[in-house]
């Protein structure tokens, strides 16, 4: 619990910080938003704040100067060749295309950094290995024939079909309406159990993948732990990273699992139409959509 003295000290410090900020701050030349002292751009509208300085390299420039004598770029920014957005950044803030003279070269250099090369290679092999033991491939659409429950189910089906035939002889010749289904839950349970068993068998592989993913994530994080000589250098670096390295995110995948085939003849859920006596009456595949979350490497849409 925070005591009153600490609370007061905290309040004083907060007030001091706020006061200092007000003293140091100015107004954006473009939109009037409050800016902190020394800010090169406005946080609100991104307008360049350092009058008389090139927006790409901070070198001093005269009013109306067409090109910066230091970096060779127009000191007040230039239009992105790809999307037409006016940019005061090395990379277009709209489409991330290279804008300044050295942006493309910077990006190429960035991509050849040993850490970046290593990360990209690891992402590729991880992708390939993940595809090799994808959880979706562990799903079986058909239960094996040698399980006890299947013969039990077949006995039930036989009996039910005989009942149905007897009933049909008594009633009209039209196709009987589905009466009840007892196969659904059984089939589904077994299908789920099999899927779980399959996943359990692949657990060591999946765990190894998970560990490699975690290592990759910390490598990408380590690459970003650095300070820069200027704001523009930092922006250049992080945009290069964003367009080069795909991100690892948790995504939801929906996997349809076929439980069985429900016939119109008796409304039974068979493993397949081949197990039904009168498939000509039609039927429907019974599908269970299971949702799973997994970590996947995805490229950001910027
Ligand atoms: Zn910030
Ligand atoms: Zn502004
Ligand atoms: Zn310049
Ligand atoms: Zn653009």
TrEMBL record:
<keyword id="KW-0175">Coiled coil</keyword>
<feature type="region of interest" description="Disordered">
    <location>
        <begin position="161"/>
        <end position="180"/>
    </location>
</feature>
<protein>
    <recommendedName>
        <fullName>DZANK-type domain-containing protein</fullName>
    </recommendedName>
</protein>
<feature type="compositionally biased region" description="Basic and acidic residues">
    <location>
        <begin position="161"/>
        <end position="170"/>
    </location>
</feature>
<feature type="coiled-coil region">
    <location>
        <begin position="206"/>
        <end position="233"/>
    </location>
</feature>
């Amino acid at each position: 619990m925070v005591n009153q003295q600490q609370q007061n000290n905290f309040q004083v410090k907060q007030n001091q910080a706020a006061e200092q900020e007000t003293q140091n701050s100015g107004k954006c030349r473009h939109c009037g938003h409050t800016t902190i002292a020394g800010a090169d751009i406005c946080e609100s509208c991104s307008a360049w704040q350092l009058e008389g300085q090139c927006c790409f390299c901070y070198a001093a420039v005269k009013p109306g100067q067409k090109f910066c004598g230091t970096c060779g770029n127009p000191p007040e920014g230039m239009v992105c060749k790809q999307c037409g957005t006016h940019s005061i950044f090395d990379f277009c803030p709209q489409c991330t295309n290279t804008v300044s003279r050295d942006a493309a070269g910077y990006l190429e250099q960035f991509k050849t950094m040993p850490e970046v090369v290593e990360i990209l290679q690891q992402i590729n092999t991880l992708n390939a290995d993940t595809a090799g033991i994808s959880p979706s491939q562990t799903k079986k659409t058909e239960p094996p024939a040698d399980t006890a429950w299947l013969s039990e189910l077949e006995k039930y089906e036989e009996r039910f079909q005989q009942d149905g035939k007897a009933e049909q002889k008594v009633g009209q010749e039209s196709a009987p309406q589905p009466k009840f289904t007892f196969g659904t839950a059984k089939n589904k349970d077994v299908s789920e159990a099999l899927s779980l068993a399959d996943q359990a068998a692949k657990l060591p592989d999946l765990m190894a993948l998970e560990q490699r993913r975690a290592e990759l994530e910390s490598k990408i994080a380590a690459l970003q732990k650095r300070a820069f000589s200027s704001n523009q250098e930092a922006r250049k670096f992080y945009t290069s990273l964003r367009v080069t390295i795909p991100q690892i995110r948790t995504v939801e995948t929906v996997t349809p699992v076929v439980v069985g085939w429900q016939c119109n003849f008796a409304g039974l859920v068979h493993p397949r139409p081949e197990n039904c006596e009168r498939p000509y009456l039609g039927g429907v595949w019974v599908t269970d959509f299971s949702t799973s979350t997994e970590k996947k490497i995805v490229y950001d849409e910027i």
